[in-house]
Each structure stands twice: as C-alpha cells, then as structure tokens.
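User: Sequence recovery, please. Input:
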C-alpha cells in the first residue's frame, strides 16, 4: 500500500475549510486547526487508551495525525465537569487559548460543532462507546446534535 501524502493533504485541507466555516471563523484556518487539535487532545486525556485506539481506527489519516501528535500514554485525567474539560482544552491550546476560546459558552459551541464534524468519520457505536466512558456531566457533549 503506497502512501499518498498529496491525497492526505487534500483531504485535510478540504476538512479544515469546512470545519472553519462550520465554526464561523471566517477564513482563519490556523485558529480552526488549533481548536480542533486542543479538543482532540483533551478528549484523548479523558477516555481510555483502548477507546482512543478504537476511535482513531475510524479516522482518516489527517485526523489520526492530529490526534496522536505529541501523545504520551498516561492515566486518564479526572475530569468531571464541562468547565474542567474546557480548562483542559485551554491548557492544550496554550497562550492562544484566550483568543481561541473566549468564553465557556463559545468553547461548548466549538466542542459541539467538532463532534458534529467528526460524526462524518466515526460510527454511532463508537460515539456511544466514548459517551459511556465519559463522566456524567460530560456525556451531553456527544449527544448534543451528534446522534443523528
């Protein structure tokens, strides 16, 4: 099987363009990429390694690359609330988090939109498996608008 990096790049650019539009970020693809990366990195810290592997098995190559970039497998974070999850996302976004995730409400909208976009690649069964692993107060981030 030959790797076609040009095709991966084309798919990534197409996705990022749609993602940027869905997030209402104008043409700011850099910001959209930071937001996507931060959300995925926070998610992988909240779910088990086994569930992460099952999730990325369904991702196209460009999303796999985003998800695993900088990943070191360790214990799950003990995140129990949406506020704690958003704080974890901001930690991954770093110094740009003030600009990227202004309010918790905006962050929640970005999270919901991200899961809607990921639904194009991830089965309902896998989303349900992830949802099952989430603490009670985070389960809604999967079901809000995603299970269609």
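Assistant: Recovered sequence (148 residues):
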């Amino acid at each position: 099987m030959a790797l076609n990096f040009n095709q991966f790049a084309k798919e990534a650019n197409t996705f990022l363009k749609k993602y940027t539009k869905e997030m209402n970020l104008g043409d700011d693809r850099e910001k959209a990429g930071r937001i996507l990366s931060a959300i995925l990195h926070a998610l992988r810290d909240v779910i088990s390694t086994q569930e992460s592997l099952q999730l990325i098995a369904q991702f196209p190559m460009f999303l796999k690359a985003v998800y695993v970039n900088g990943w070191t497998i360790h214990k799950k974070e003990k995140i129990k609330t949406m506020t704690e999850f958003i704080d974890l996302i901001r930690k991954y976004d770093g110094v740009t988090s003030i600009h990227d995730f202004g309010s918790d409400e905006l962050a929640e909208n970005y999270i919901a939109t991200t899961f809607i976009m990921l639904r194009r690649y991830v089965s309902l069964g896998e989303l349900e498996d992830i949802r099952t692993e989430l603490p009670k107060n985070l389960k809604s981030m999967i079901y809000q608008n995603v299970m269609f």
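Residues 5-22 form the longest helix (18 residues).
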